[in-house]
Design goal:
The protein has a single domain, classed as P-loop containing nucleotide triphosphate hydrolases (Rossmann fold), CATH 3.40.50.300. It contains twelve helices and ten strands. 41% of the residues lie in helices and 17% in strands. By secondary structure, it is an alpha/beta fold. It is globular. The relative contact order is 0.18. Bound molecules: adenosine-5'-triphosphate and magnesium ion (MG).
Amino acid sequence: MWQFDSHANKTFGKRFKNPVPDSESLALGSAVSLNLRVPSSVLAIANQKGGVGKTTTSVNLAACLAVAEKRVLLMDLDPQANATSGFGFEKVEGASSYRPLLGEGDLAEKIQRTAYDRLDLIPSEPDMCGAEIEISRMEDHVMRLRTALKPIRDADRYDFIIIDCPPALGILTLNIFAASDWLLVPLQCEYYSLEGVSMISRILNQLKETGVNPNLELLGVVMTMFDGRTRLAQQVVAEVRNHFGDRVFDTVIPRTTRLAEAPSFGKPIIYYDKYSVGAAAYEVLTQEVLSRLKA
Ligand SMILES: Nc1ncnc2c1ncn2[C@@H]1O[C@H](COP(=O)(O)OP(=O)(O)OP(=O)(O)O)[C@@H](O)[C@H]1O
Ligand SMILES: [Mg+2]
């Protein structure tokens, strides 16, 4: 079961009270500007359980954040490359972050513009599964992504970098955790859903204890694929709220055919069916994310 230690609770509360100001708010009038660069916030969308809505949440949150005027980079780090195809991109050999993670070439060169304003993508490719093995043989094997991402973060090019994680807790996911500020966990409204997060909780504590990334915090848990007609779904939501308290987002993502269809058209839901309940749910979730981050 997921447990939060009081330290994590305190840190979590503190980060919310002291949001990082954006670069505009640091401008002191037209003549004086501190000209400070604020690194992007990196959000990992993770759950080692498969098929819980990680990719659907990554793609749609990224798209909604861009609509909300935020500059967004979506990184697909899952060898399945579902977020890549969800944006209508082909899975092209050599287009992913695979080589830069091995120290070959610049990660920024892999950035591609999408059809949507303020929204870029670093695609994945099936070969990424080879990265697991190759990276694990390297020095600093947990820090590869953090190092590769640093110039992009520091360049003040994006407000948010959203990372779609694979359904595993292997080297790639550890790299993502080491490189991220926030963790957002989609939880499917089903009986065994809580099992999927127990491991992540342990990993979070280990990242703190080992110093790999003591700053990674849980931004929140989002319940996905909610079917209000079943009593089970309602019970699961109640149980999860009981367990996680206010870390569970108020927004619950409904199970809808439109959300499942959208990736086959290579579009986020707000472009596939703007007035659907799925689009509305992800828009409201985005507002919640922004208000939690005071962004
Ligand atoms: N709210 C929803 N309503 C209906 N279908 C959904 C919803 N969210 C996701 N799906 C569908 O469920 C399947 C799994 O979703 P998704 O790919 O987002 O999960 P995932 O956690 O990324 O999976 P994996 O672990 O394999 O990467 C997909 O076919 C997706 O289209
Ligand atoms: Mg996925």
